[in-house]
């Protein structure tokens, strides 16, 4: 039988999200109902609410979550009722051209639940990133459930569902940071600080955090930054020069742009070594354009790469990083800087504009 639960819904662009009754349908053959225990408040949810993703309102917000499998479809083999899972938005199809080429992190046809969740009047909801986890329960495809060690608290493990995984993966997977290399990270929000942690995990010895807000430096240093640069009022070439001063005059081996605007990308481009790698993990707004001298692009080796979800493979990366946390080798709990309830999610999204927290997590009490 369908189940009615509470969920956070954005009905129209730039309007407050509401906690309302939503209907969870019975799972299809490969679908799973998950009891949500915690869900992080991510900038992507804010973008959905404010119309920065698309106009397929109403949205059921939330995607950075962990919980337990409550019900499964008749053909589900990947998980069982009672399994403790982190939800992911890369349930790869195995059939598209990317999957057939063995680069499943670029899957073009990821799986989602077969039936939409709805409002009580039958209006179909668009689940954020195919998940919709600011709710007591949600419906997803079985491939969106990744089993992890249940000793990790849901408010910590769930962060691997998006932002923290994106940042760590930008350094470890996309940037392929090696032991002894230098890394610069532009933008020290949740994703940028996760990239700092990822660079440290990979063995970088010089890790530079850059931001216009000096209040963010303490968290970056705690997570592994060896140097910080206040970029407020500086031009990209000036900032690049400061990075070069800290890297023997040559620039960083890897520069990660966790902001995603032309000025930060230009900074990243010029702050890298001639054969260094630039990684764009900050999501640009639609319509934003970048201008660089083509001769400068030609005159440098290395690579210019984008990082989607940290180029992660959930079944490989999420359990591994959870285990590192439990071993005390990856301080995921440091990212949880605030807690709220489902009722407080809209206010928590508004607070993202202040940049005061790494992650506020909505904890669902039962």
From TrEMBL:
SUPFAM superfamilies: GroES-like, NAD(P)-binding Rossmann-fold domains. PROSITE patterns: ADH_ZINC (PS00059). Transmembrane segments: none annotated. It is an enzyme of class 1 (oxidoreductase). InterPro entries: ADH-like_C, ADH-like_N, ADH_Zn_CS, GroES-like_sf, MycoS_dep_FDH, NAD(P)-bd_dom_sf. Residues 190-322 form the Alcohol dehydrogenase-like C-terminal domain. NCBIfam families: mycoS_dep_FDH (TIGR03451). This is S-(Hydroxymethyl)mycothiol dehydrogenase. It comes from Brachybacterium epidermidis.
């Amino acid at each position: 039988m369908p189940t009615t639960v509470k969920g956070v819904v954005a009905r129209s662009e730039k309007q407050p999200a509401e906690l309302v009754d939503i209907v969870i349908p019975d799972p299809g053959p490969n679908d799973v109902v998950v009891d949500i225990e915690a869900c992080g408040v991510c900038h992507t949810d804010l973008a959905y609410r404010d119309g920065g993703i698309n106009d397929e309102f109403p949205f059921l917000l939330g995607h950075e979550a962990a919980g337990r499998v409550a019900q499964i479809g008749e053909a589900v083999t990947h998980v069982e009722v009672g399994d403790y899972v982190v939800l992911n938005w890369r349930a790869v199809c195995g059939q598209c051209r990317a999957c057939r080429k063995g680069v499943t992190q670029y899957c073009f046809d990821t799986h989602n639940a077969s039936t939409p969740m709805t409002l009580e009047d039958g209006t179909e909801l668009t689940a954020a990133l195919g998940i919709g986890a600011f709710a007591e329960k949600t419906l997803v495809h079985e491939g969106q459930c990744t089993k992890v060690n249940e000793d990790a608290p849901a408010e910590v493990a769930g962060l691997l569902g998006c932002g923290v995984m994106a940042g760590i993966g930008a350094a470890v997977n996309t940037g392929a940071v090696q032991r002894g290399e230098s890394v610069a990270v532009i933008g020290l929000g949740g994703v940028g600080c996760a990239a700092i942690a990822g660079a440290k995990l990979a063995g970088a010895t010089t890790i530079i955090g850059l931001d216009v807000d000096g209040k963010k430096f303490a968290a970056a240093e705690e997570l592994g930054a060896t140097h910080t640069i206040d970029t407020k009022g500086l031009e990209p070439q000036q900032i690049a020069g400061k990075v070069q001063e800290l890297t023997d005059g040559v620039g960083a081996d890897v520069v990660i742009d966790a902001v995603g605007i032309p000025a930060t990308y230009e900074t990243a481009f010029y702050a890298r070594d001639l054969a260094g790698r630039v990684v764009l993990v900050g999501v640009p707004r639609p319509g934003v354009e970048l201008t660089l001298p083509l001769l400068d692009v030609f005159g440098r080796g290395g690579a210019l790469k984008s990082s989607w979800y940290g180029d992660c493979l959930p079944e490989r990366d999420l359990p591994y990083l959870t285990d590192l946390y439990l071993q005390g080798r990856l301080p995921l709990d440091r990212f949880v800087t605030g807690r709220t309830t489902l009722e407080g999610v809209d206010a928590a999204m508004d607070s993202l504009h202040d940049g005061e927290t790494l992650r506020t997590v909505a904890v669902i009490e039962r």
